[in-house]
Each structure stands twice: as C-alpha cells, then as structure tokens.
Target: Cyclic di-GMP phosphodiesterase response regulator RpfG
Amino acid sequence: MALELIGLFELLQCASGKQATEEAASFSPDLLLLDYMMPDMDGKETLCELRKLPGLNDVPVVFMTARVNEDLSNDLRRDGALGVIAKPFDPMDLAAQLRELWQIHNDVESERAMLGS
Model:
C-alpha cells in the first residue's frame, strides 16, 4: 500500500510465485519485486520462470529476504538482481529504496547505450 500511496508505483501483488508467473505477462512490469521465500516456489525459481515469458527476460528485479547474508546477496546479484532489501523493512522507506535501485539501473543502461553507439 505504501508503494502506491507514497511511491506512486502501480502494483500487481501476487500471493505466490505461481500466481506471479500466471499474471506478470499481462501486467507488463517495469520492475519485479520478489520475496525470496514464497509459497509454491521460492523467489529464484519464480524469477527463472518469469524470465521464460516474452518481454520479461530483461526486466530488472529486486529481492526481499529475511535471510540476508553476503553469500545470498551475491548469488542473487549474479542471477541479475539489482539489489536485495533486508526484512523486516520500513514500508515508508521502501519506495525510496526502489527508486534508488531503479535509478542505478537506468544509469547503467544509459551508459551501455552510449558505449554501444
């Protein structure tokens, strides 16, 4: 709720990885925010399935987890995560954290485009 009210994000909230894979393609997300621990399949499995869907193979992803440690964070970043947000988190700060990660993503993409031209 805070993401919509404060962060001005349009959200599609899913209760499980299975639901996310069923609904994400029709929503066309710009950013994926995945909990690492979810029913049905974990966040990494969900991301793997989402990447198979048309138009979702390059969508940036941020993970949330209570199991924060350097190895897991590095593993998730190797799998393409922009960042990892530790739980518990302050809902009032979440939008700012996501905007910061989104800006980093956009800066990297802009730099890649400039180098490629």
